[in-house]
Amino acid sequence: MTEAGRYKQAYARWQADPEAFWAEAAQAIEWISPPQRIFDASQGAYGRWFPDATCNTCFNALDRHVRDGRSEQPALIHDSPVTGTKAVYTYAQMLDEVSALAAVLQDLGVGKGDRVVLYMPMIPEAAFAMLACARIGAVHSVVFGGFAAKELATRIEDAAPKVILAATCGIEPSRVVEYKPLLDTAIDLSSHKPQACLILQRPQVEASMHATRDKNWRMLVAAAKANGRKADCVAVAATDPLYILYTSGTTGRPKGVVRDNGGHMVVLKWTMDNLYGVKPGEVIITASDVGWVVGHSYIVYAPLLQGATSVLYEGKPVGTPDAGAFWRLIAEHKAVVLFTAPTAFRAIRKEDPQASLLPAYDLSHFRALFLAGERADPDTLVWAQDILKVPVIDHWWQTETGSCIVGNPIGLELLPVKPGSPTVPMPGYDVQCVDEGGRPVPAGTMGAIVIKLPLPPCALPTLWQADERFVESYLAAYPGFYNTSDAGFIDADGYVFIMGRTDDIINVAGHRLSTGGMEEVLASHPAVAECAVVGVRDAVKGEQPCGFVVLKSGITQSPDAIERELVALIREKIGPVAAFRLALTVGRLPKTRSGKILRATMKKIADGEDYAMPATIEDASVLDEIGVAVRGRGLG
Ligand code: COA
Ligand code: AMP
């Protein structure tokens, strides 16, 4: 068969018989007991995949490759310009590290189903820890290092981990971020206390240890190795959770997205072959963070399930040391695919618009750039295409799905790229565009993007210990469909365009943040009467949060001083990742007659866009005041 038509054929095969499609894909995984049933519609909120199978994800990621002749092949390359170090771990070495760490976890009392929270920077031990949990059937929950103690505390409270694994610091180009004080504060804030913390002392920060709770990671792993202690793979049900990953909801309380062991493996393996086209033995660089879903799936699990080599990059696209960082990585590690967020390319373009640093590197083996995490604006996509001269693939997904919903499956065939569209639905996803009543809209018409149930393997079966919240958040609005909370349209060729969220989630430098969560923090300031946070356009980060606040009457403190306190408060309560720098004091907020704050109109004013006067507005003159306030800060 020629390449043309391979996507259509694969999608049609899935449509005709989804169970046969996933049963075939499941053959690429080594099961302990293979699935006899592929899907059980009677279980869970919309059904469960591979309900009777047992497996171990770590076995498929490591042991299997060591057994099958990949022992000496690099599994993980740590490339860290921020520390000036590089390290390579072969599959055999990685298996040794992971099985020793897994034994240490068992010695600390961690067993099947126990939760383990990881608060780790971009170092190999983060990947070892995830796999060590998988090996013994424990459920990991990685918390991104850019979150503050309170966010970490919320996750500890919800996941109730038996043990927490953390390093003493993360390294940002401008500063060393000490994790231990954040961790200690988070444990103090949480009513749930872990039995132990395994602390990895990094050379940059030697943290003092809690006398009974904290254990020294390196010493315990060294002792386990010296004693020949290794944990074996534990059999888990395919439907047992591999991990919980918290993501922003519409309030300050994050949602614990649950990922199955079995379905996750089946789909990730399928995507390596068919979507990314990365073969065993090849190298992929995913420049994200292990704290995000992209990092879970494409720094750690998918490359290893495929027997490929993954580059774990502890650095930035610019400034470590320059805007040629990605080109150096690709050339030096002979990567065939780079996966990152569009914001990284906007940052590179801003520093080096002519890509003058590129010609110094040999990128002859490089095949494709994949972008996700936020909409790839056509301008950036075309720029990347022009300089790299390889396909630049935008693809759309969510933490909830764990892998791509809409993409361009170059492993099957490269479909024509339409800048602005992540292309077409992947097998497993019946993507539709509907109006508020759930009726399909004509091609090219904006609407809510929904997915017909059941969701495919790998997508979340539920939220951690919150089945009702799962149904309310995702399944209730459009019966029979999963509500993505993204809006967009589908054109006459079936290309999907994702234009933005329909809820109050914003995307800042590819990071998903809740404006509702930020409003809760602003409202907690004693001088604030009411507030509204909107995402305003930013040339590099896509969006940045902007908080409009109305002060209580009788406040004597200057608005400037309060605004500075509010910026510090968000950093303290949510973390630097919120990138909250704009707090604007205004006299009033624009509202409808029923009291609803007109956030969308405020955003348009701040972005300098035309807006229609809302028919229900209580007092239109407030909008002029908002205009004056934003222009005072160089917006609008
Ligand atoms: N630990 C601690 N702090 C962190 C952090 C981490 N893991 N990651 C980011 N931060 C901090 C940054 O240092 C910055 O702090 P500052 O306010 O003191 O400067 C703040 O959080 C905001 O970070 P960010 O929004 O990432 O901005 P930046 O200026 O540091 O970098 C980019 C901008 C575009 C270079 C950067 O965002 C990037 O590389 N993005 C890639 C996107 C990505 O990985 N997305 C994941 C989904 S695919
Ligand atoms: P996250 O869960 O952090 O991966 O964020 C998911 C959200 O990011 C989606 O709901 C979209 O709003 C946005 N997003 C991710 N990838 C894309 C893309 N390729 N195009 C448009 N929006 C995207």
UniProtKB/TrEMBL annotation:
Enzyme class: ligase
Domain of life where this protein originates: Bacteria
Domain AMP-binding enzyme C-terminal: 518-596
Organism whose genome encodes this protein: Bosea vaviloviae
Ranges of residues in domain AMP-dependent synthetase/ligase: 71-452
Keywords: Ligase
Name of this chain's protein: Propionyl-CoA synthetase
EC number: 6.2.1.17
Secreted as UniProt keyword: no
Acetyl-coenzyme A synthetase N-terminal domain: residues covered: 7-61
PANTHER family: ACYL-COA SYNTHETASE, ACYL-COA SYNTHETASE SHORT-CHAIN FAMILY MEMBER 3, MITOCHONDRIAL
GO cellular component: intracellular organelle lumen
GO molecular function: propionate-CoA ligase activity
Family: Belongs to the ATP-dependent AMP-binding enzyme family.
InterPro entries: ACAS_N, AMP-bd_C, AMP-bd_C_sf, AMP-binding_CS, AMP-dep_synth/lig_dom, ANL_N_sf
